[in-house]
Amino acid sequence: MIFLLRPPQTYMPYGLPRPRPQQDRWNDDVQRAYGATQRVAPYDPNAAPAPRTDTVGRLKELAELRASGVLTDAEFETAKAKLLAEDSA
């Protein structure tokens, strides 16, 4: 004779719905908790777009300053590394 093991039935009690004001308070609490986790500011259609940095143009300016003698080679390399680090970020 084969006996099959049957898992016990799960009991899921029926809960009465919450009163509307209590449900609204709960919804507000959940929305506030969710809003606190957002790290990005909400989209503002009136905000001006962030200016794009012209990396190539800035590198050319640095090269001209180095060629004219305003910047030394070490200063040029430092400024170039900083500019490229900002661009990659």
Short précis:
With 89 residues, this protein is mainly alpha-helical. It is built from 3 helices and no strands. The protein is 52% helix and 0% strand.
SS class: mainly alpha
Task: Quote the beta fraction.
Answer: under 5%
Rounded mean pLDDT is 82
Q: What's the β-strand tally?
A: 0
Cα end-to-end separation: 70 Å
Shape: elongated
Number of helices: 3
How much helical structure, as a percent, in the residues? Answer: 40-55%
* Radius of gyration using CA atoms only: 32 Å
Main sheet summary: none
Any low-confidence stretches, pLDDT <50, length ≥5? none
Helix/strand order:
HHH
Task: Describe the protein's architecture and organization.
With 89 residues, the chain is an all-alpha fold. It has a domain at 53-89. It is built from three helices and no strands. The protein has helices at residues 20-35, 55-68, 73-88. The longest helix has 16 residues, at 20-35. The radius of gyration is 32 Å and the shape is elongated. The mean pLDDT is 82.
List key phrases describing it.
89 residues, 52% helix, mainly alpha, single chain
Helix and strand layout, with pairings?
Elements: H1 20-35, H2 55-68, H3 73-88
Helix pairs in contact: 2-3
